[in-house]
Amino acid sequence: MKTVIRNGRVAMGDRLVDADLLLVDGRVAAVGGTGPADRELDASGCYVLPGFMDFHTHVDDRIGRHYLADTYATATRTAVENGITTLCTFVTQGPGGTLRSAMAEARAKAAGRSYADVLWHLTPTTFSGADLASLEVLVAAGYRTLKLYTTYKPAGLYASYEVLETLFRRLGPKGATFLVHCEDDALIAAVDRAGLDLSRASSHPRMRPEAAEIEAVRRVADLAAATGAPAHVVHVSTVGAARLIAEARSRADLTCETCPQYLVLDEGWLARPDGHRWLCSPPLRGDREAFRALARDGVFDMVATDHCPFRPEDKDAWDGSDIRQVPNGLAGLGALPHITWKIWEDDPDRSALGLAAHLAAHPARRAGVAHRKGALLPGLDGDVVVLDPSGPERPVRSADVPTPEAFPRETTRLRFRHVLLRGVPVVQDGALLDPGAPAGLPLQPDPETLPQS
Q: Which Gene3D superfamilies match (predicted)?
């Protein structure tokens, strides 16, 4: 099957080219000189971009006491309707369980229900010799991204800096990349809560201070430099941490992401009567103008959502006395391209190239799938977004399931004229073409087919 996308402005690395794009049998075949085709799509007035990736989401899983509002079906539908053709999400080793068993459960939930391709990051929680040997097998098979936390001891997720160093030294040379939630647990534990009013969501940034993020980032950057392991700092929220990462890149293989909430929301949202609905970790911060300037200057390698949608009744199920009863997390999946576009919105061409880099090329490279995803190059998957920047203005919607809207004041004019997954049109004018035929596939092998360590 030959498909030609005609009359668009095609993102090719750091430039836009006025050309047609040819897809053959699900893969990119050529830019320009396309000739006749079985299917032709018009991209007049549009940018033609590689399919987007959300590098950081939580779906169809239990977080603490609550089950998330999005399933693989609902999340990936929201994703493709907003140009996200690859969803990256997490599998966490449960108490007494293994990563392989957790992965088997996640794959079963996604099988036959996903409208986007799916890639899983693995979160180990035990670190014995046998655990590390098992991780070596998984990394070799394509599970190259491991998530670690420098906080959350009560939840059983915490990994000390000593554990991080062991993993960096052993698994880094094997091809692993380490995604790290950077908040220093000791600095958080040292906060004097006696003077805080825990009935107010505005106390949250004081309980998880900026210094905790900055210190953890410093420690992780030093470990990456000392070991040579590739590290990626998730959901950077502070100006100080962003500047530290920018400086550390000269001595370490270090990348980072920020999230839509840290670009357009500030801690003033926590002072609202319903401010608990905006609780997330790291918290919303101040000094957002300086933070956005860093984003505009390219300090962040990618924008990802940390999409973690709770039902309104779960967000609101607290007695008003202690905000620690409220589940932390915001929806963001459906807002990702719309908020990212606003970083450079005074220059549409720059915004289009920014989407291609920060939502496609950079996350594909860090996820270890740049040989398949992230660019419109011959041989890569035909994941394509035909983006009209001048559609009718409408509200941004972070999710299509019941969950508090994280961005109630934000609007967008982006319209997704066409979205193609591996060469097949799946979305037209922002709507799913065939809801009864989810075509998403896993990007990694079934762990049950892999040898034991």
A: Metal-dependent hydrolases
